[in-house]
Design brief:
The complex is a heterodimer of chains A (about 375) and B (about 300).
Chain A (H helix, E strand, L loop, with lengths): L1 H27 L3 H10 L1 H11 L5 H23 L5 H23 L7 H6 L9 E4 L2 E5 H19 L1 H9 L1 H6 L4 H40 L5 H26 L3 H19 L5 H27 L5 H4 L5 H5 L3 H13 L3 E4 L2 E4 L1 H12 L1
Antiparallel strand pairs in A: 1-2, 3-4
Chain B lengths: L1 H36 L5 H20 L4 H25 L4 H25 L6 H8 L7 H20 L1 H9 L1 H6 L4 H42 L3 H25 L5 H19 L5 H20 L2
Classes of the chains: A mainly alpha (about 375), B mainly alpha (about 300).
Chain lengths: ~375, ~300
């Protein structure tokens, strides 16, 4: 039993990390939805290869499906190049058509064969460890762990080898082209990897949730850092955390593992979205609040400076009447005065508000700027 | 005699399904035009997937399988998903495509979790999820067609009432904002109309293929005209055409699912439009190029 848990957990983690790595470049290059298109469009490739090999885990199946994925990318680009169809529409046309062909093929010819639509679309991680790799009778572990492990290593090696090229093509494609890096080659290399990864992840999570693994962790990491290298590492870590927490939630409530991992992806994304320093929602809200008080305080000291030493100063800086001179809400005025007093920008003398040295500097600076 | 009654019965069912598919095609074609023009073609894909948890929660809360309640749940979830996408794009530096991908897949995953939860209580059958994914056009009843007709009609009427505002929103959002149109409200209105079209279509073609019903007729119509009015009208016609022809083709042989066939019909219409539409079509473009080349050759050979 424990071995079963460990197997599933390992497969989940390796799949998540393998998906997150190429996902970083998809997210940065605004091509996330290409993975959605690929994951659906490879269905006819899988079906045809399945008819030929009659096995869902043969290497030929993965190759045929990955080939279909690359064809999809090619097709979308051809459609775009006619200039008659925009990119989003080209994606939206291509993958439903290919997917439809796949569904019709399955229901027309595969009625008696074991090719379950649900398995293709939704995957079932719980069954993944059942299919084991056996050589000379000794059990070496689940097949999908080896498949995803190989794909993970492939992705890692590709990214490490072509890190500089990928970075340049991602952030400045025209400079890359001018320097002779051939963006097209890198692009198709990346797309081939995405296709292979998607096909590999099928078994475990199905075609719809692959997108959660590919887009979720990189987008979450993108909220946290500006550096590509850190984004890659963060994505891998976040992907693993999603996989582990998702798996335990699924185990606790006895629900779909893949679905639970996707749900955790959303929860962790939203969590980071709120709490990340500087860019998170909470940080932004606090900054806005602080700016509001700072601005009001500046207005107050400028008002006091304007009338300082003049005959009307006595009426203009009376605390009780301030809200009328500044046309503020009385309650708000009281709070601003308190804020300014706390900051030692003003001091109180009986009913009057007097500028301190610090307050005068702030007001003068604000007027100069 | 018995044969005849079966035949008329079949024809009646087929007719109902064909009418339903035609209505759906028309509604999603017309509303899809706006999505395609705003480069939000894939929003439909996201909304249709995001609807799953809504259906599951509606079922968990009410315990009923009444289509109207489930449709309401789907609509609310789809709508929430869209709002989340819009706020992610507005508040972070994450781009539209990633926001779409995250919402699409994680909402769907959450729906899957709820679905397995329902299944475990023994309350529902697997068929529910299959219907959601692939639709079941063949089981459409006269009652369903009536629902599609009424809700679709309302959506199209709203579209016509706000014609001018939506047109401005699609073609020049900045200008619309500058002369005081409530952009945010209009955006939400348009999205809500899309949600209606999508939720109606779920039953016929399912979540996975629904995006094609929004995109394909609109892209086909775009090739034939530069005017919004004509484009929306043509897209509705193409959608209806795809609905009817898909239904008829899938009824001619056994084991051809209706939804995918409708989508393939719509794709064929797009292919023909891209190739043959006057002015923009690829074939005319090629002919024009060759004529120019010939003319140029004649001109230059004179010297």
């Amino acid at each position: 039993m424990l071995q079963g848990h460990l197997d599933i957990l390992l497969i989940a983690i390796v799949t998540a990390v393998a998906c997150a790595l190429p996902g970083v470049f998809l997210v940065l290059r605004r091509m996330t939805l290409m993975s959605d298109a690929i994951s659906h469009a490879i269905l006819p490739g899988i079906v045809v290869a399945f008819f030929l090999t009659e096995s869902l885990s043969s290497p030929l199946l993965i190759l045929a499906a990955a080939g279909t994925g690359v064809l999809t990318v090619l097709f979308v680009e051809l459609l775009q190049r006619t200039k008659l169809v925009k990119e989003d529409a080209a994606i939206g046309l291509t993958f439903p058509a290919l997917f439809s062909i796949g569904v019709i093929l399955i229901s027309r010819f595969a009625g008696n064969v074991h090719l379950d639509m649900d398995a293709v679309l939704l995957g079932e991680l719980a069954y993944a460890p059942l299919n084991r790799l056996k050589i000379f009778g000794s059990d070496l572990g689940p097949v999908s762990l080896y498949v995803m492990g190989t794909i993970f290593v492939l992705n890692l090696v590709f990214i490490l080898l072509f890190y500089k090229e990928l970075k340049l093509v991602t952030f400045d494609a025209s400079l890359a082209a001018a320097l002779g890096f051939v963006p097209t080659v890198i692009h198709y290399g990346l797309m081939t990897l995405v296709s292979v990864t998607t096909v590999g992840a099928f078994d475990a999570v199905g075609s719809i949730l692959v997108v959660a693994l590919i887009a979720g962790p990189p987008a979450t990491a993108y909220l946290m850092t500006d550096r590509l290298s850190r984004m890659l590492i963060f994505s891998a870590i976040i992907g693993s955390v999603n996989a582990v927490t998702g798996y335990w939630v699924a185990f606790l409530f006895d629900v779909s593992i893949a679905g639970s991992i996707a749900t955790m992806t959303l929860i962790i994304f939203v969590l980071i979205f709120f709490v990340v320093p500087n860019r998170g929602l909470i940080a932004i809200a606090r900054r806005h609040a602080r700016q509001k008080w700072e601005f009001a305080q500046t207005m107050l000291v400028i008002h006091l400076l304007n009338h300082e030493g003049l005959p009307e100063a006595e009426t203009e800086s009376a605390i009780a009447d301030l809200h009328e001179h500044l046309s503020w809400d009385p309650g708000f005025t009281t709070q601003v005065v308190k804020y300014a007093l706390n900051n030692r920008c003003v001091s109180r003398e009986e009913t009057q508000l007097i500028l301190t040295e610090q307050g005068r500097t702030i007001a003068q600076q604000a007027l100069v700027e | 005699m018995e044969n005849l009654s079966i035949l008329t019965h079949l024809d009646y069912t087929l007719m109902i399904v064909a009418i339903g598919a035609a209505l759906l095609g028309a509604v999603s074609g017309a509303l899809g035009s706006y999505a395609v023009l705003r480069r939000q073609s894939l929003l439909g894909d996201a909304i249709s997937h995001a609807a799953l948890p809504g259906i599951a929660i509606a079922f968990l809360l009410t315990g009923s399988k009444t289509p109207l309640i489930l449709v309401l749940g789907a609509a609310i979830a789809g709508w929430l998903g869209t709002l989340l996408i819009l706020s992610i794009v507005r508040l972070t530096r994450i781009k539209y495509d990633s926001a779409l991908g995250i919402v699409l897949s994680t909402f769907f995953g959450f729906g899957l979790v709820l679905h397995t939860l329902i299944q475990r209580t023994g309350n529902a059958n697997q068929a529910g999820l299959d219907t959601f994914l692939f639709g079941q056009a063949a089981t459409m009843l006269a009652r369903d067609v009536l629902t599609i007709g009424i809700l679709g009609g309302i959506a199209l009427t709203v579209m016509l009432v706000f014609w001018k505002e939506l047109k401005l929103l699609v073609f020049d959002e900045g200008f619309a904002a500058s002369i005081g149109f409530p952009i945010r409200t209009l955006d939400i209105l348009l999205t809500s109309l899309l949600v209606v079209a999508i939720v109606l279509g779920l039953q016929a073609v399912g979540a996975v293929l629904m995006s094609a019903m929004l995109v394909a007729p609109a892209v086909a119509a775009r090739q034939w005209t530069d005017r919004l009015r004509l484009m929306v009208f043509l897209a509705a016609c193409f959608g209806a055409l795809a609905g009817v022809s898909g239904t008829i083709i899938s009824s001619t042989a056994s084991r051809i699912p209706t939804g995918p066939t409708i989508v393939l019909c719509a794709t064929v219409v797009v292919g023909l439009s891209i190739a043959f539409a006057p002015n923009r079509g690829l074939v005319w473009d090629r002919i024009r190029q060759q004529r120019n080349r010939r003319n140029l050759k004649m001109e230059t050979s004179r010297y």
